[in-house]
Structure formats: structure tokens, C-alpha cells
Predict the 3D structure of the following.
Amino acid sequence: MHANPSLREHVRAKAENRPGVYRMYGPGEELLYVGKSVRVRTRVLSYFRAPKGEKAWELIRETARIEWDYVPNEFYSLIREMKLIQQRQPKFNVRHKRKRIFAFVKVTSEAAPRVLPVSRVTEDGSTYYGPFPRVKALAHTIRELSRTLELRDCPGTTPMFFDDQLEMFGSGRVPHCIRAELRTCLAPCCGRPTAQAYMDRIELAKRFLEGRAERPLAELEEQMRSASARMDFEYAAILRDRLERLQSFRDQLVAFRGKVEGLTFLYRVPGFAGDDRLYLIRRGRIRKEMAHPKSRRARARVARAIDKVYGDLDAGPSALSPQDAAEILLVARWFRLKPKERKRTVEPDVWLSEKVPAGASSPTP
Ligand code: SF4
């Protein structure tokens, strides 16, 4: 099958060379691909010239319809593209995705939740923390955390019975693995803990992952001390290694909090045909997009938005929705790859304190 020539003519006739996001649909109206470009016309037409066998050639061969929207700037095209890909999971974006270098920690929404390292965030009712680098090391650390807090890590299909349910299901159940005997798991598979006792441990794990609880570390220290006191030095050494790993993970959590905290500012982006935009970014997430103010009244509107976005007390990064995580990663990456863009940012209180020169539109950013 060859690319549809009338499709190319349609793009040639209608598309403009300005920033935008385009979508390619298959014959059954299924979304095949979402892309972005600062020059939509040139980019979309380039697919029709792709050499045989390449991804672009394969894609355009399957495309029956193309549509696009214009956006004011490249930054926003990235955000819009990411959101569309996340919501719709187009076949070609998913198949050709880049290797993931970040990992997340997932707390499942099961009756007896598990804490697991994962490489992708999905809408499954779970709570996610991260992103963290180095998936392999993370897997190790999460295992230590589960052992320290005596949380289960068995398959999701393992049946769970809490102590307060045993009357219903009958007592005398036996644990499904050795962790119950080693006392590294509360063993909800055989009804040892109450549902509340297990969920208290899960809450503690969540607080630790938010960088708000030191108790898992304190508990390990205590266990290490008592192992040494009873001269069980081998076990004390195992606990010391475990403690060191959890401490370094805690340090990573703190560093991540700091990094996300640093992504809090107003960001002015020059737009196509003078459509300059102002993005109110708090902890790596775009909380509001506005036209850059050109009058005192518009500036007052921005001031009210600043008050709303940055004014409330926010305890800091905690659990992330999949969209939040992807957005933080994207915003962080944007400023990492384009450090000069930082010059267009300003802290909210600095923006508010800047005086607007009489008759002028507005100061920086
Ligand atoms: S002891 Fe039971 S609940 Fe804990 S990990 Fe093993 S099978 Fe799962």
C-alpha cells in the first residue's frame, strides 16, 4: 500500500509552518501516531518522502487521515504531545518508545498492598512515587524496604486473609512462603495481622517514600543493635548493609524533593506571531497557562492566578498520578536540555514585586 496522494495534497494546501501537534489515524479511525513540531507543515510533509522500510514510511503507509492543532510554542507542543500519547497510547508511539531510564515505586491498591519497583506508570488505582534513576538498584532497595516493614512481595494472585476475617474464612491457614517464618513478612496470606495492622505498615511505607518518615531506618538501627548485643554479628552485618542502602535511598528521595522544588517559577515563552505565554509552574507541574500580560488589568489577573497557584500551603511532593509524573519528567528534561530557558523564568514573589513602568506593558520575564 502506498501513501495516499490526496492526503499529501491536503497537508500541502492546509497546513502552516508554525508550532503544533499532529495526529495520524488509520483506516478504522484508530489513532496511530501523535507528533509535534515547531513547523507542522514541513514535518508532516517529510513523512511522505521517507525511504521505504523506515518508521515514517511504515506509518504514512497506514495513515488514512491526518489532523493537527497549532499551539503557541515548542514547550507547549511537547506538553500537549505527551498528554495525548499518555491518554491515547497510539500504536506507533508505544512501539517506538525510547528506552526508559527512570523507575517508579508503586504501592498497589490490593487488599494487602505491595510496594513494587516499576518502569512505567499506569492508571490502575495504584499510588506512584518517583521518578528514580537506576531501575536495578531501586528493585534491591524496595525489597529491603518491604523486608524492614514486613510487607508482602508475593504474586498478586496469592490469597490474603486478615486476622479479623478468619472467623469468616476459617483459621489454621499456613503461610505460603518462608518469609513468615523468618519474620520478614506480617504474613497476611495466613491471617496473622489484622487488616488495620497491615495498612498501618503501608502508610508508614508511603510516608517514607514521601521523605516524611525515618521510622524504617530507626527500626533497622534498633534491630542491628540488638543483634550485636546478642553477639549475632553476621546478622548485624546484614542489617547494617540493609540500613546503608535504605539511607542512600532516603538521600535520593530528599534530592528528588529538592530538584522538584527547584522547578517552581513563572516561565515566559515567546510565541508564534507575538502570542507570548506565561506558564505558572509549581514543583515541575504546569498549574496554569496564560497570555503574557500586555496591560495593567491583564497583569492584575496574573497576580490573582499567582496567589491561587503558589499561595496555598503544600506539603511537598508526595504520591504522583501518572500524568503528574510524566509532566514533571518532561519539564525537568526541558530545562536540563535548554539551560538558557532558565533566564526566562522568575520566582512568583519577584514577579509580583516588579514595578510596571508607566505606559509599558510589563517587565520580565
Ligand atoms: S509470607 Fe505470605 S504474604 Fe508474606 S510474602 Fe510470603 S506468601 Fe506473601
Observations:
- Residues 152-154, 158, 175-177, 179-180, 185, 187-189 surround iron/sulfur cluster (CB under 6 Å).
- Residues 102-259 form one domain.
- The chain has three domains: 5-95, 102-259, 262-353.
- The longest helix spans residues 233-261.
